[in-house]
Design a protein that fits this description.
The complex is a heterodimer. Chain A is an alpha/beta fold. Chain A contains 14 helices and 15 strands. A nine-stranded mixed β-sheet of chain A has the order 2-3-1-4-5-6-7-8-9, with helices on both faces. The radius of gyration of chain A is 22 Å and the shape is globular. Chain B is an alpha/beta fold. Chain B has a single domain, classed as Class I glutamine amidotransferase (GATase) domain (Rossmann fold), CATH 3.40.50.880. In chain B, β5 and β6 form a beta hairpin. In chain B, 53% of the residues are buried. The chains are: A alpha/beta, B alpha/beta. The complex binds zinc ion. The site of zinc ion has 8 residues of chain A, from loops. Chain A: Keywords: ATP-binding, Cell shape, Cell wall biogenesis/degradation, Ligase, Metal-binding, Nucleotide-binding, Peptidoglycan synthesis, Zinc.
Amino acid sequence: MSELPLRAQLAAALGRGAASLSRATGRGDGSVIGGRIALKVEPNLLAELARGRRIALISATNGKTTTTRLIAAALREIGEIATNEHGANMPTGHITALANNPKALIGVLETDEKYLPQVLRETNAVVVVLMNLSRDQMDRASEINLLAKKWREALAASQAHVVANADDPLVAWAGLAAPHATWVAAGQRWKEDSWCCPECGGHLKRDPDPHWECPECGLSRPYTTWSLDNATDTVTDPEGKTHRLQLRLPGDANRSNAVIALATAAAYGLRPEQALPRMREIESVAGRYTSIVTKGVEVRLLLAKNPAGWLESFAILDPPRVPVILSVNAQVADGRDTSWLWDVDYTVLRGRRVFVMGERRTDLALRLETDEVPFEIADSVDQALTRLKTEQPDITKVDVIANYTAFQQIRTAYGRVQ
Amino acid sequence: MSDTSSTLRIVWIYPDLLSTYGDRGNVLILRRRAELRGIPTEVVRVHSSDPVPEEGDVYLLGGGEDRPQILAAQRLRADGGLKRAAERGAVVFAVCAGYQIIGETYGDDQNNPLPGVGILDVRSGRGDTRAVGEIVADVDPALGVGRITGFENHQGRTAIGPAARPLSTTVRGVGNDGTTEGAYQGTVIGTYLHGPALPRNPALADLLLRWRVGEIPPLPPSWGERLHEERLAAAL
Ligand SMILES: [Zn+2]
């Protein structure tokens, strides 16, 4: 990276300075402010910083932070990696990640869905990893069909190798435009956004699962070379070899992230045997899946930002005796509109002790009442735990599911747990 | 259907095309508020590849993106079931994209007018700006619903023809044009209150039930009323 033009070098140095200042003053992890300052000095900075590196971009509605972490962990087997592990997934965050690791020849960048076309153009990424697209924060995000169309156009104009989930019709439709692709059978639990053909609008025929095809235009699920079997916790690679995943991260959603990560590692020449041991070391990602022990209770933190995310979280809840605390906010980062609560099926919580909290707990209360799930109102995790411990002293585990800012508030209350 | 012992048929039109964000809430709350009064219900989900049954009591249509909206309108027009049901006096409650397509015309993404189902005398097109945020409006006093609250997220602008009336007068937000919100004609209602408009406004849900089954006993106030008051206080 020594050929970086002087102006870009200066910009990158300025950005690094601002980032460490931001960290030192405790205002954040510095990934956004550093990039923002650097971009002012050199608008082409992202392209300059990316030049000569083999960049992978990871995008999806759900799981992109975790998958980015899994891929970065695997690719460290090859050498140094530049990655935005704090989840700052817009160009300013990418600039900071690349500027902080000038020697890294590989970049692994989580990318916001809306920014994917622009970042793909600027970084000339060699690999684009696409997992899923579903409804999310409609008050500020694009409509997802439009998003998929923009992905499709950007991929058609690129030389990128796509690693994509064939089980999500919107993702597959976008990925089919890329010049090269690795198709992964990574599964799709949330199907409410893909009953219609992305090409012509026809009602998709979706059986036997995971096959899908459009009876009107013929668009169909691409042939996959990697596949996942949740029941046996195994991945089958293109040579037909099976590999036990044995992740520390819980649930089918993370198995799905892992098979995508393995296929991506393979695009960089890494075999699953080399990639898996490093992926297995990860047990939490920016506070997600972390357990904190307080008042003698093991409290596990789960992040769920949208209906598909809540569905995944419900699937990994501990057995029915374990109480669950739900927290929902509607700040800008969460989306100001709580309508999505009605897309989540809460009936699976029946029989469990449930607490609701957060700035929009009244919305959540009505939602649970409608699904006939008994619940109690709480002001904080701490208050819920105190009540629980008083009434059920033998409680040892509690799960917490929260949306974005609600999650960050809880995480901060327990000392910004990783 | 004045006899409350028979089943209330709630027909959810095209959840595969018109169900952008929380539209399911209207189905769930209508069913719950009917059943709490001892009115048995049946929910019929009609996919865009299926015919629309004509003998339903309440028809619900949700929001949708541009292309699904066009497809839904084409299919509903070709099918004819919804129009025949409305002519028979069924209740129709349509939200956002659904509101636009039950009108006479609506605009595509280039703002070209396209024909709607034609059961509500309104004409919709696209405005210059997107209306996003909390909305508050006072419903036509003739309907006895009072003040409603919701979230709007649309670029539509709607003009109301002589056969329909504005559903409400806006207190905050944009609605049809910055002054009125939604429209009604007989027992057909359209509104820009997006997604779960009925959960957020129990009185509006009860209006739809009254239209179909006659007088219904009040329910003790619960979380729906609490949410209604909380959102009004937050928005004003
Ligand atoms: Zn098709």
